[in-house]
Every structure is written in C-alpha cells, then in structure tokens.
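2024-03-11 09:14:02 DEBUG pipeline.ingest accepted 1 chain
2024-03-11 09:14:02 DEBUG pipeline.ingest length=374
2024-03-11 09:14:03 DEBUG pipeline.predict start
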Amino acid sequence: MRTALLICCAFSLQAQSTSFEGHPALSLTNDKLQLTVLKQGTSIAAISLVADPKHLSPLWDPIRMAREAGEPNIFGTGMGHFLCVDGFGPTSPEEAKAGLPGHGEAHERQWDVTEQSKNTIAFSTALPLVQEHITRTFRLVDGEQVVSVETHLTSDVAFDRPVFWAEHATIGSPFLEPGVTVINMSAQQAKTRPYEVGPGGLPHRLPSGQDFTWPMAPALAGGTLDMRSTPATPNSGDHTTSLMDPSRSVVFVTALNPKKRLLLGYVFKRAEYPWTQSWEFYPPNGKLARGLEFSTLPFDVPRRQAMTENALFGTPEYRWLPAKSTVESHYLMFLTEVPAGFLNVDDVRFENGRIVIEDHAAGKRFALVSSQTL
C-alpha cells in the first residue's frame, strides 16, 4: 500500500496530459504554481497559484471571454502567452501566397514533446517555410514561484539572416480589471502606433505615431494619459511600444491587480528583447485584453517594412541569426501574491538568487527565491 501511494504521488508530480479550451496541453505543477502549455505553438495558456482555490490565471483566454459574452471568438488560435517566430506581424502578399502565416510559423505548429519529467517540459519543431528549427524548455523548481523558459532557434540555411521574434504575453479579464490593474516596465522612450482613422473598431485614446516618455502618453482629448493604468470606463483600442532601459542588462514588465493582491511578471535580457509592446483591447463589455509583448521589434509589421525602417530610437528592429547557427533566449516568469497595501511596481531586480520587487511609494519590498537564472 505504501509503495503504491509513493508511486501515485510521484506520478502526480509529472507533467500531465490535459486539454485547455479543447486544445491538447501539458500541465506542469510544483508546490507553488500550476502551468498549462499547449502543444500547438507551446503557448502558455494558463498559470495559477496552487494555493488559490479559484486557480485564477492572469493570462488572456479569448475563447472563454467570447463564450461569456455570447460573441464569436475573433482572435483565432492566439491566447495567453504565445510565441511569434520567425515573424511578428502580417505577411507580404508574396509570403501569404507561399503559405507563410502572420506572426510566423511557430504558433501554428504542433510541437513534439522531447522531455516530460517532474519539473520540466521540453518541445521541438521544424519551421519548414523559413528553414529553421526551434526548441523550447519550461522548468519549475520545487518551493519556487518562478518559471524558466529557454528557447533555441537554429538556422538551416548557409547565410546570415535577420529574424523577428516576440513573446506575445497577453493578460485578460477578470485579472485585467477596469480602474484596478496596473502595468509597469523598465522603459524610457516610447511611441504610439501610427494608424489611419477608418470605420469600425474601438475608439482611440491616443494620437497616431507620437513619441513620448513612458508612462505618460499624449491623449487625443488633450493632456496626458498614464499608460500604467487600466481605464475605469473601457471603450478604446490602442497600441504603443516602449524601448527598454538601455542602462540595464536585465529588464522587466509586470501586471498587478492590487485588489486581488496578485502579480504576474517577466524578467528578461534587454539585449534579447529591447522592446515591449502594449496592445490594448478595452471593449465596453469589460472583456479586456492587454499585451505585454517583449520583442525584437517595436511593432508587429511585415518583415520588409521592419528592414526598410531598420531602427527606431537608434535601436534595430530585428535580430541576426548567423548561417547554420543557433541563437537563444531565456526569460523568467513569476506569479505571486503581494503584501497588503502593495499598489505599484517601481522596480524588479534579479540579484543573488532572488527576484526583488519594490513599491517605493508604499515603502514595501519583497523577494522571490529563484535558483534559476538568466
């Protein structure tokens, strides 16, 4: 009996096959976190605290939100935190004719599971249209509230090439709450996305193509808007990009719901992802979404446009992948409760095996242990 119980308990700590909104997935769990990763695209569909009886995930679930609103899902297969490689944005007419999907091949591919153990899930897939292949590994450590995500992208061609890569992390309701949820990042120069006014879509709060200093953006109605805040009365759609602080080698982006005392965050190397995009989808029905998209380029645009523009604020809009070589990326994702009265994230640092998180105005500071490093 005791042997059977031990075997059962050990098996329960393995990555488990499951499904999420009808999509095959794997669930990785330690004593602190539960992580659900889709086999399609290795999208992170959900993350929650084991101790939370409601298992609230901050990540965007457009299928559930459309179902709750009694509306069709207009966002296709994108959900949660999905990977955009090699490409971020729409294709050219020639690329579309050749079968290349928008946002690259990776998010549409069914990946092979190459490792499935107590604390690790590893995947791989080929990207035949762009002649690359890619591996992706998710790791948890017992007793820690941090997920390590490591990706290797390999070129199968004999020439150097620019690649376009985004970690399309997106949060959604009910974690993304009007007038409550706050976004923070270690950013400086920023820009509103250029657009043309046309019929349909949500109204804009921001003017087209205007530079600003994060977090205060110019408002169409005059004055400025604090881009950290979620509007109390949602009815808008906008998109901005922010250049991550060049004085820092490690940067961050976070989303905090102080009412729920729940904080989602990412820590990553500025050299790998110099840009963070904020895509805002704030319909009046309250089914909100906001991107925290750290990437190699400032906006999701066709690769030809990105190469023609070449750079923004003196920073390239692409990353080089040398001939027959591999480049990698590595970021840490964390989910935690925050102390009572913690209202804003002023800084996140990785130091001495800890992720240190600070709210200067409240005079509050706490740390998460992380044996996993960048």
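2024-03-11 09:14:41 DEBUG pipeline.report The chain has one domain: 2-194+203-369.
2024-03-11 09:14:41 DEBUG pipeline.predict end
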